[in-house]
Amino acid sequence: METAAPSAVIVAIDGPSGTGKSSTSKAVAAKLGLRYLDTGAQYRAITWWMISNGVDTDDAQAVAIAAGKPSIVSGTDPAAPTITVDGLDAAGPIRTQEVTSKVSAVSAVPEVRTLITELQRSIAAEAAREADGIVVEGRDIGTTVLPDADLKVFLTASAEARAARRSGELRGKEAADLAATKAALIKRDAADSGRKTSPLAKAGDAVEVDTTELTLDQVIECVVTLVEEKRAGRK
Ligand SMILES: Nc1ncnc2c1ncn2[C@@H]1O[C@H](COP(=O)(O)OP(=O)(O)OP(=O)(O)O)[C@@H](O)[C@H]1O
Ligand SMILES: Nc1ccn([C@@H]2O[C@H](COP(=O)(O)O)[C@@H](O)[C@H]2O)c(=O)n1
């Protein structure tokens, strides 16, 4: 039987695209000595594999049949998270516009979600057994993947703020204009919220943090405090 270390803490951070989940989760995990899991990277990785192997990502049946083929491995050091697919470093390729535009269709396929959810639960269980715990970020962590997490946080921000953050990132690369960036993230959120299986949603017992007017440091501090309060309450 798997036994968690008594002090291990499991933190679930969910929210729409561009709300600051990755930046916040990485920093909180690093500050508190926890592991970190980017579940979006796993869905991106399987999407990249589908594209690279000629699977039509709009064909849910074809995606379902192929879903078990790639081997996806996530490294959970918050200072240097990694993702490989069949042993290949996928960190760069999973961030292309092509993957971003196709990932919602792939992640909506129930067979994909079943496989990736199992993988996520086994990574979290290992972190609870062998480390001080983990911060897991995504869309359905608090509702489906880890419903018994010690702390659930749901980050939000206005679409304008999120688009401005994303446009800032893209400057000099694929420099999209603000309106196009905003439209793309609203479209992806609608697809992620509207799918039948495990949609993007706030768990009933999650703490909602609106980051629109907060700096990243303020959000990090807020979540660190929430984790510390949870830990103190367990003593
Ligand atoms: N509170 C904040 N204020 C300003 N910029 C922020 C804030 N939080 C995050 N950012 C910036 O916004 C961008 C998006 O953040 P991040 O990648 O962490 O979001 P995300 O929710 O993980 O997005 P996605 O779900 O699309 O992966 C990054 O450039 C990050 O530095
Ligand atoms: N728990 C999750 C996490 C992510 N997804 C899907 O992956 C896409 C990419 O996520 P990013 O955080 O890297 O932007 C996202 O749009 C979802 O389609 C998911 O379904 N569940």
Automatic annotation (TrEMBL):
Gene3D superfamilies for the chain: P-loop containing nucleotide triphosphate hydrolases
One Pfam family named in its UniProt record: Cytidylate_kin
Family matches, as CDD domains: CMPK
EC number(s) reported in the record: 2.7.4.25
GO MF assignments: kinase activity
Reactions listed under catalytic activity: dCMP + ATP = dCDP + ADP; CMP + ATP = CDP + ADP
Group of enzyme by EC: transferase
Binding-site positions, ATP: 15-23
InterPro entries from the UniProt entry: Cytidylate_kin, Cytidylate_kinase_dom, P-loop_NTPase
Record localization: Cytoplasm
Cytidylate kinase domain boundaries: 11-228
Highest taxon of the lineage: Bacteria
Keyword set, alphabetical order: ATP-binding, Cytoplasm, Kinase, Nucleotide-binding, Transferase
Family, similarity comment: Belongs to the cytidylate kinase family. Type 1 subfamily.
Annotated protein name in UniProt: Cytidylate kinase
Organism: Streptomyces erythrochromogenes
Biological classification of the source: Bacteria, Bacillati, Actinomycetota, Actinomycetes, Kitasatosporales
